[in-house]
Design goal:
Layout: H1 13-30, E1 46-50, E2 54-60, E3 69-74, E4 78-85, E5 103-110, E6 115-125, E7 128-135
Antiparallel strand pairs: 1-2, 2-7, 3-4, 4-5, 6-7
Length: 149
């Protein structure tokens, strides 16, 4: 007769690892903000798109003043947004709910290719920051001429 070894935890390990990964993602969203909803590692929320010559980054920054905002391009393809959104202080009022995040933030985004740090333009309108970054010449597509014999 052949003996079979019974393994109670053999099939349980992969789901436990997946559970741990999901829990880490959940806690990463709330890290460093005292558990306030909306204040996450992903603040400010970003949209990123490109055309042939530029890459555009759009960030939602309601309540952030220009004097409290810094933009840095480093390493050829890293964009850093740094700033602070100050909380409003209601006169003679009491907070009943505060869901919007306030305080200092830093968000670093690795761009998909190198950009020219001397050709960056930024505009803040209606609480939306739009950054236009020119692609570095090495990142622009080149048309290759095909020769025949």
């Amino acid at each position: 007769m052949r003996q079979t070894r019974w393994n109670l935890f053999g099939n349980l390990w992969p789901p436990l690892q997946q559970f741990q990964t999901e829990m880490n993602r959940l806690f990463d969203r709330w890290a460093g903000n005292g558990g306030r909803a909306g204040a996450s590692a992903g603040f400010p929320v970003l949209n990123v798109w490109e055309n042939a010559d530029h890459i555009y980054v759009e960030a939602e920054l309601p309540g952030v003043e220009l004097k409290d905002l810094e933009i840095h391009v480093s390493g050829g393809n890293e964009l850093t947004l740094k700033g602070e959104r100050k909380p409003p202080t209601p006169e003679r009022g009491v907070w009943h709910r505060q869901e919007r995040a306030f305080g200092a933030f830093t968000r670093t985004l690795t761009l998909p290719f190198a950009v020219d740090p001397d050709k960056v333009e930024a505009r803040l309108e209606n609480g939306v920051l739009t950054i236009q970054l020119a692609k570095h010449e090495s990142a622009k597509p080149r048309k290759i001429a095909v020769k025949s014999e």
